[in-house]
């Protein structure tokens, strides 16, 4: 509609109406749509029609819509949400990278001590600071 294709828009509305209600498309109560290009001529009603808008106008309108996020009370909420998201990603990726090493250490411990029941910390203690796995002789 904002690009002047009202006939296509009306056909689409009729089709959606027909699919939603099960009625024939011709029973759609709206018979014509307002021509937004003529309505918004001269920049009335809050903006330029999409088809006639320049890139500069598009950026200005986008900034007008986004700008309120940067004024109170929103900045602290954005900072908090960003910090939480950063922490979640950091934690998730850390676990994702360490899990294979942890599982390997647990498996190695079970191979070296087949009939022993041990807690998690004991199983991980076979990894030495220089990243070598201790053997039974050590």
From TrEMBL:
It is a multi-pass membrane protein. It is found in: Membrane. GO terms for cellular component: membrane. The keyword Transmembrane helix applies. The keyword Transport applies. Keywords: Membrane, Transmembrane, Transmembrane helix, Transport. Its main location: membrane. This is Uncharacterized protein. It comes from Popillia japonica.
């Amino acid at each position: 509609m904002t690009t002047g294709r009202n006939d296509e828009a009306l056909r689409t509305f009729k089709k959606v109406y027909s699919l939603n209600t099960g009625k024939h498309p011709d029973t759609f109560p709206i018979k014509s749509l307002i021509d937004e290009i003529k309505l918004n001529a001269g920049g009335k009603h809050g903006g330029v029609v999409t088809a006639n808008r320049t890139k500069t106008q598009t950026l200005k309108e986008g900034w007008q819509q986004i700008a309120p996020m940067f004024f109170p009370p929103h900045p602290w909420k954005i900072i908090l949400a960003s910090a939480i998201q950063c922490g979640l990603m950091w934690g998730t990726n850390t676990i994702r990278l360490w899990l294979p090493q942890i599982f390997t250490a647990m498996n190695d411990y079970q191979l070296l001590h087949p009939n022993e029941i041990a807690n998690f910390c004991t199983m991980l203690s076979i990894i030495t600071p220089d990243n070598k796995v201790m053997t039974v002789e050590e």
